[in-house]
Amino acid sequence: MDFEIARRTPQEALARLDSRSSGLSAAEVVARRARFGPNRIEAAEREPLWWRLGREFVHFFALILWFAAGLAFVAELHDPGQGMRELGVAIVGVIVVNGLFSFWQEYRAEQALAALRSLLPPQVDVLRDGHLERLAAEALVPGDVIRLGAGDRVPADCRLLEAHGVRVDTATISGESVPMARSAAPCASIHPLEASNLLLAGTLLVSGEASALVFATGMHTEFGRIARLTQGAAETVSPLQREIARISRLVVALACGLGVLFFAIGELLGLPFLANLMFAVGIIVANVPEGLLPTVTLALALATQRMARRQALVRHLPAVEALGSTTVICSDKTGTLTQNRMRVARVVSADGTDAPGHVPAMLACIARHCHTLRCSAGTVSGDPMELALYAWAGAGASAECLDELAFDTERKRMSVVVKLDGRRLLLCKGAPETVLPLCRTVADGDQPRTFDEPARAALLAQQAACAASGLRVLALAWRELPEQAPACEDDLVCAGLLALEDPPRPQVREAVGRCREAGIRVVMVTGDHPQTALAIARQIGLVRGAQPLLLRGEDLQRMTPAQRQQVLAAPELICARVSAEQKLLVVEALQARGEVVAVTGDGVNDAPALKRADVGIAMGLSGTDVAKEAADIVLLDDHFATLVDAIEEGRAVYANIRKFLTYILSSNVPEIVPYLAFVLAGIPLPLTVIQILAVDLGTDMLPALALGAEPPHPGLMREPPRARRERLLNAPLLLRAYGWLGVMQTLVSLGVFLWLLNAGGWQYGDALGARSPLYLQATSACLVSIVVCQMANLFVCRHPREAVWHGGHNRLLLPALAFELLVILAIVYTSPGQQLFGTAALSVAVWGWAALGALLLLCCEELRKACMRARDRARHG
Fold first, then answer.
1. Cross-referenced SMART domains, in alphabetical order (predicted)?
2. 805 shares a domain with 698
């Protein structure tokens, strides 16, 4: 983009683009459109939807399930009526549900581009061959001359040719919350956000009228560059997604290895091929946790509902867990840490003293009338700073506005000429360094007095004190004008100073403290002034030390990647005056250090960083659609404290996933061992494949989901973030699930199975038919024993160390138990259940033995927990 055009006069700018003030001709427009293309944000090339949909059904985990389903269908063809068809259908159902859900999540993530396009206006007024036409914004080409008014969104990058009271809101590009004045005069700076005569695509005219020359369109604009950054930012895989993929590969490799191994053993032992094949399928199905992905998905969905009640809307489910593993939060300032509602914090009278008890009349008069606010249907809108002044001044006599000297960056002040109570007054407000030198007198009651050096020094001292507190200071002055005299900003009467603040949000200081306790570092990354950012950081406790590291965006840009990684390790860090690329550099450098990074933002300029971060968090109230679509989570109240609450929920999700992983994997052992006993010990098969699915996809689902809804543990936010390389499925979890809880369940279920066979007169070596009443009862007893043990397991899995009775309230536990009981009763005692799952009705005695075994499991696990707690107390005390 040619930002050198900012240094040219309007006439030179037109000549540079070979254009005229009357606009381009039709022939020139055709030629330029062929060269530059339409004025729109182009989509990056993507794979077709059908291809991405199909890919969700052929990843590694899905292929193994397809293989298992295929084996089940083959077995059904060779020996119908053994339940293998139902098994195959159930496995295919799991594949389809998981594939469709994954595709839907990816499809939703692509809406960021549509949001980018929506920010460009559909139509604009263009001069062509001297005639003003209303055309589609897409039709613009470099060299076009357009007309803009208050409320219009800028359709392309433009250079002002004429400007009358123009103020532009650049928040969507720069993140700045205060509208900036723009003029047509040449400018020394060629930085797109600093040049006072440039209008950037996607920004909004707050006030004024303008004629502008288009010099960049479509993807060549600053807006298009940010869009390209957003498209190019790599999608970050969440820690949970990595862990689930790892667990899937590990478990599937184990399942297939065991299946092949025991198929070979069966062949050596001379088992019939079909029976051996069913045996191999059983081993695979018993080891593959078919319910894992649906349970994880449902647990995350429940977490999103809890977070929504706490004002955090989740758009991307894996981000819930990633948020819980966050080690660094890159937070913007305005609207997140502060209220984004400016207010007058201090009033300094003309003699340099605070005036908290009353409102000086002339200060109020200037604040009430010296502005560019728009009043429509009783509603006042415009610059937040002027709105704050207007609200502070309160009601007063109405005045007729006769003239206006608009604000610009050179003068750093604005003035209006009004008719008030028969007097013609010039009212002025602006930066003290430009307004106070114009003052010759100060208001001292009804008698003005000379504005001498002591009075000037007193006001400057007050200004310095306010600025050090992070307040924005304005000087207000006035003079009376004779009739017909020109508006002249000299010989002014100083009325005093007003200091404005954007106060921190309530509970932000407490939330920052909670982050500190939780071992999470908070880095302020803002487009605002460094001193303002530092003052707010001290107010909210983000900075406590005397020498925090204060970095500007340009400093970060000049560093090498290694230097950025080193400097961003500072414990107290503020990054100010940061652009879109610089914010992206901060995120990438932190991630290169091994940090899990959460980023907050609200503007178009934040979209690349939001997308690149491990967790992107957009503002729901002040955020643009682009930011919301690029983010994983939207804060409905724009509050930093809500983000900290969401982190607590995210940590709880990770802990809960471990809880139900322990619960689910525990039942794998009593599902696998029966097949080993069948082959190695020569006993009847204690559990059929379809009965395994009855546990994995039936009775276990809702209890596992109940564990996924456990409330956060009270000490959760006093623990440090887990290491990025920490495994979800670690050795202690596997040892507890497979080597302890699973073994106890196996002993109970096989014990009840053999007890019932023995009570029915079976002798070792006797053959039992698959449909004999004794065999049906025995397999039913094994199934019931596993389910009853899982009921006890539900309670012991609530915490790896705390006792059962110390768990918080979980309203899903009792419904989950009732569901589990009803399902197993339906499987065992109803005719459809018996036919589908190969079961038979059982006596009360069987249930009694199963319940006794479950109680033994509960007592043994609680004894283990008590020993671990005692060891921890001895270690720490």
1. Cation_ATPase_N
2. yes
